[in-house]
Specification:
- By secondary structure, the protein is mostly helical.
- The protein has one domain (3-119).
- It has helices spanning 3-6, 21-24, 47-57, 62-81, 83-86, 89-156.
- The termini are far apart.
- 22% of the residues are buried.
- Residues 1-52 are annotated as: Disordered.
- Keywords: Coiled coil.
- Residues 16-27, 35-48 have a biased composition (Polar residues).
- Residues 99-144 form a coiled coil.
């Protein structure tokens, strides 16, 4: 047994990684695509292969996107603690791809949030404009009522 095989790769679903169980339950793992490293056996996957599977299943929900980045960071930390398997080129490539994918997803979520914010601002401005028009209509109605009341008050003494 080599030194790289002496310590199994940590599980990304462990409590240390999955600090928010409600959020991690939203991850739906995509089907595992066999790679030379995993050969289709999920227990033989590196932490980044496991994370990569989770990243493919992440929705555009911003909170989940940032948790994916956090999971990638935890996997990097675990790699630092176990340099035997972290030094493999396949692991580094997978780690980099997983981190880039997580960052791109977070960026898309941020852009979607910005677009939603712009649409909300536009709706607020339209509502303000409608409110201003409504205020002008109400003011005009009040002036008309006041003018009619004035006419009634003046004509009341003439026996009309």
């Amino acid at each position: 047994m080599t030194s790289a095989q002496s310590q199994p790769a940590p599980d990304l679903t462990s409590p240390e990684v999955a600090t928010n169980s409600a959020a991690t339950s939203e991850f739906t793992p995509a089907p595992t695509i066999p790679t030379p490293q995993s050969s289709g056996n999920p227990s033989a996957q590196t932490p980044f292969e496991q994370a990569h599977t989770k990243f493919h299943a992440v929705t555009t929900n911003s909170e989940i996107e940032f948790q994916a980045i956090e999971a990638a960071g935890v996997a990097f930390k675990q790699a630092q603690e176990n340099p035997e398997w972290a030094t493999s080129p396949a692991f580094r490539e997978e780690a980099w791809m997983a981190l880039v994918a997580a960052c791109k997803r977070a960026e898309r979520a941020e852009k979607a949030q910005e677009e939603a914010n712009r649409e909300m601002e536009k709706a607020i401005e339209e509502a303000r404009a409608e409110l201003e028009v409504e205020k002008k209509v109400v003011d005009a109605e009040r002036r008309i009522i006041a003018a009619l009341q004035s006419v009634l008050d003046r004509t009341d003494g003439f026996g009309c």
